[in-house]
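Components:
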Amino acid sequence: MTSNATSIAGNETYSPRQNAVLESALGLLVEGGERALTTAGVARAANCSKESLYKWFGDRDGLLAAMITFQSSKVKAEPAASGAKGRAVLAAQLTGIAANLLKVLAGDVSLALNRLAIGQARRGEADLGLLLREHGRRPIETRLSALLESGRRERLLDFADTREAYRTLYGLIVRDTHVRLLLGDSLDGEAPAKRAAQAIDEFFRLFGTEENTGPAPQRAGLGNERTG
Amino acid sequence: MTSNATSIAGNETYSPRQNAVLESALGLLVEGGERALTTAGVARAANCSKESLYKWFGDRDGLLAAMITFQSSKVKAEPAASGAKGRAVLAAQLTGIAANLLKVLAGDVSLALNRLAIGQARRGEADLGLLLREHGRRPIETRLSALLESGRRERLLDFADTREAYRTLYGLIVRDTHVRLLLGDSLDGEAPAKRAAQAIDEFFRLFGTEENTGPAPQRAGLGNERTG
DNA sequence: CTGGAACCGTACCGTACGGTACACCGCAGT
DNA sequence: ACTGCGGTGTACCGTACGGTACGGTTCCAG
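Structure:
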């Protein structure tokens, strides 16, 4: 239907001018939420005409979809060097990805886009939600999963189902933080790096091999080491 | 500003007629999302007049808030008998609450209300989000936290910070399920009871005392257990 | 210089929605 | 029977938004 950016694969790319328009549209969404994202508002903020908006993106929904694919195209992940060596390196890599994940999830545009897609989603149909799951979540899953499997290959980790292990790791890292942020809560003093390290520690205690169950053999006062 | 249901505490109660109106409004929201929740639509679906809507709830936002408090008032939790005895009982209680949590989060009205509040939330201001956090999430937190502390009193669990332990438990139970559901994904064959049992198992492996680290160190079969 | 394509700015249209006003009805209490 | 109250249904208003049309401008090709 729309002239551009219709396919779910979303490998679309846009002209610099269109990128600038999408950028200011994202800014408009971050500030003010969806109700501020009117076609006239986008045109005014981007100094372009509504007619061009409709020519480029076909539709308001097309514009929203383009914003998602554009934003995800901005954060291309590095291929994550797969040749891990030893537990410490693996843990460090996992911790880095975990901290990065937390930072991304708490970012302004990520929250705004997720709010947009979630607000749009209904019972059966979830147009933008599918896009966001494909572009936002699958990359991090593949990266983490590859790292997990490489750890299993080195006999540092022991799990049967990669996807299950990944999802548990995700739960340990993110917990209820994402939904709380989406609902408007602010994570006060929760440092992403600290939470990431704790999550990886807990994950190793759950899925590490015997001699690699984690740095802390006994659990006294582990919940959060801020007491020590 | 609104005539009713303004306080955040939200201990408001409504007349049977108003309850019926709120009920049909919830049905309208579940089916069709927020864009279907117009004042005229609610009035038509509930066979009442728009004037009554504005008299009772003052505002469209007042109606939305009333829907949240009304829905949360419907699912009053039982006080959760605190006198636990032994690991098996504690684990069973935790598993029950966990499974119930998963079922609630996946419920139609819960998803619809969360989508509504999240879609409404913006940078600073999150009116409905606060309501939802207060009414929807705090009850489950207090219940689980009480259970965790009773387990610690019986030396079945070992953790320093109750809130941290609770949040880890929450992460193990829910993982990314909630956000995925909010984004329109359907949890295909994920049985809540099974996931709850696994989560409690993992939680005991993390926070159980030495002789209570789990039902069995190797319990082959379930998705992410060690295959040996 | 001419033609055309792309684009901006603005004006315009239809509709839908939040909110209000009003006529009418049923039902107490006296 | 009269009156006030709470309610329904409908008509109405203002506005805001999605989408379209059109004139004017810039830029490039030939």
